[in-house]
Amino acid sequence: MIRVLVADDEPLIRAGIRMILTSADDIDVVAEARDGREAVETARSTAVDVALLDIQMPVLDGLTALAELGRVAPGVRVLILTTFGERDNVLRALGHGSAGFLLKDSAPQELIHAVRAAAAGNAYLSPAATRHVVDTLASPAATVRGEEARRRLAGLTARESEVLALLGEGLSNADAGARLHMSEATVKTYVSRILTKLDCENRVQAALLARDAGLEPTAG
Fold it and tell me: Which residue ranges does the record assign to the Response regulatory domain (predicted)?
């Protein structure tokens, strides 16, 4: 069973998340927290595999709690939940070791998928969050990031670029393999190679880099 901690200051939100997650046979919500400080203390004393943290919480916000969890409970994988998707929050979350970033209006099955991915050691960024964060960004810095991203991607092979483009769309290894007619294991090998070449810590960082570069999946 995947043991989950849900941290949100709204009881109704916590109840809804609990109902969604416990509908999966392999997930158990073992604890809840009303603020970031309580989430950190609970994770310190309770066996937890994945923590879902709302960004906006009293006492200690989700991003600060994420940083503290990295120190006191490094084995806990953290997914950040929010009603908005500012890029700065995504980058801060990834910088502190978040396993993913989800919008609260994500589909129930996506939440379950994200928890499973995090528990398996993978990073997850919802396609909706990716589009909201990257596609709506309009600033002079975006041009600079795009140029830098394209420079970093220049060292990839054509096949690696195809795989990375699908990561940018939020596809799992299995889905990317189906699209490219490759086995899931082969895609996983490509992903590892891509992360090394791009000096990315996880697939979410690589996905954001792909989006910055304007990398699009090939047709078919």
Answer: 3-119
